[in-house]
Amino acid sequence: MSASQPAFIPFTCPSFNQETIDAVAEVLRSGWVTSGPKLAEFEARLSDYFGGRPVRCFANGTATMKIALQVTGIGEGDEVITTPISWVATSNVILSVGAKPVFVDIDPLTRNIDLQKVALAITPKTRAIMPVYLAGLPVDMDKLYDLAQQHNLRVIEDAAQAFGSLWSGKKIGSFGDLVSFSFQANKNLTTVEGGCLVLNNLDEAKLAEKFRLQGLTRQGMDSMDVDVLGGKDNLTDVNAVIGLEQLKQLPAYQSRRAELARQYFDVLRGELQTAGLEDLELELPVENFTETNWHMFQVLLPLEQLRVDRAQVMTELKALGIGTGVHYPIITGFTLYKNLGYQAEDTPIANRIGHSILTLPLFPAMANEDIGRIAKGLVGILKKHRKN
Predict the structure, then answer these.
(1) How far, in Å, CA of 380 to CA of 374, rounded?
(2) Is 57 helix (H, G, I), strand (E, B) or coil?
(3) Is residue 3 part of a domain?
(4) What is the pLDDT of residues 227-254, one digit of tens each?
(5) Are 179 and 197 in contact (CB under 8 A)?
(6) Which of 78, 90, 194, 291 fits a disulfide with 86 by CB distance 3.0 to 4.6 angstroms?
């Protein structure tokens, strides 16, 4: 790289300190690298974090959601209400247990599922609501659980992005029904790959354990039984020890993410004003610093005011050394779902946002000056391609 070329800023990058690297090396030296004592310790620490609720860890956040559905007995002929703006895993797991995803449109400001529209989508076949907390911002949890209680529905929270988020001062996961988190590499707390499920009682936790490892129950030294159809979704001690170290750093990570998000709001608004683009409809996220964990910072591009599409904006940002992402295209626009009869146009707000949403870089190791460089680059591209 020449001196004139600034370093590339990825849209996200995990942080691992020397203590984490040393802890992983110690697990490798121990000879016990699959599920073992470090996994048990990690689950215990997570249980403490969530106020003593039972927690079980899994190989990924997709498995946590599928197993949550299995724990509740949801299957063939059942309906689960969810959002069309999420990673496709959210609805894929519903299909995988034989149930039907019912997609409800989203709120244009929070970009989360619209709970008023959820109420209208409930039928006699509805068994559960599966909300997604996009970029870590929770839905109105009071309204969510009032609605679920009113209609006798289970709630499976896809809180994959919301580790560390709050509602009324309480940690997401410390209350409610079944709550699923992801520890994938781009999450606020990562185990490289992995996830956890917060459950209501030990009976649910024991059933989840069966589902994650072939339905197996061990008895005594040499006896075992299988009484449910399970899979292979256990988390290793290598992953678990990374999670233990990440938990120690989480407060500092959260504080840094919030600091960077505040800079984004200030600097983007300043760049738009300097460029004379105050009337450009670049939609920023909800400015919430009490509930969200700032997993991502996402803007909605004013595509109707531009001569180019999102892909071109991303391409030009990449040429400036700035990485971006799309989280997420609308699920019902994928071929699998179109072939099942879903239409993106049935949820018009989600359809618009799925085409225009853009994830900007946000991770604790970013430098303050990175925000100015990103904002200046984005606003410059928007100004260049603005329709006359």
Answers:
(1) 10
(2) strand
(3) no
(4) 999 999 999 999 999 999 999 999 999 9
(5) yes
(6) 90
User: Residue 18 corresponds to which tokens in the numbers above?
Assistant: 């020397």
228 and 253 part of one domain: no
Instruction: List, for residues 195-207, the tens digit of each pLDDT value.
Output: 999 999 999 999 9
**Which SS3 state, helix, strand or coil, does residue 64 take?**
helix
Is residue 318 flagged as an active site residue? no
Integer Cα distance of 58 and 61 in angstroms:
7
Residue 317 vs residues 1, 8, 262, 375: alpha-carbon distances, Å: 18, 10, 21, 10
Examine residue 13 and state whether it is found in any structural domain, yes or no.
Answer: no
DSSP H or E run through 128: strand 126-130
CATH number at residue 189: 3.40.640.10
Biggest alpha carbon–alpha carbon distance for the chain: 77
Distance CA 210, CA 194 (A): 17
Q: Give tens-digit pLDDT for 297-323.
A: 999 999 999 999 999 999 999 999 999
Query: What are the φ/ψ torsions at residue 199 (nearest 5 degrees)?
Result: -115, 175
Instruction: Tokens for 269, please give them.
Output: 């608004």
Catalytic entry in 38, 66, 187, 210: 187
Query: Residue 339 belongs to a domain with what CATH number?
Result: 3.90.1150.10
Joined tokens for residue 304 = 């109707």
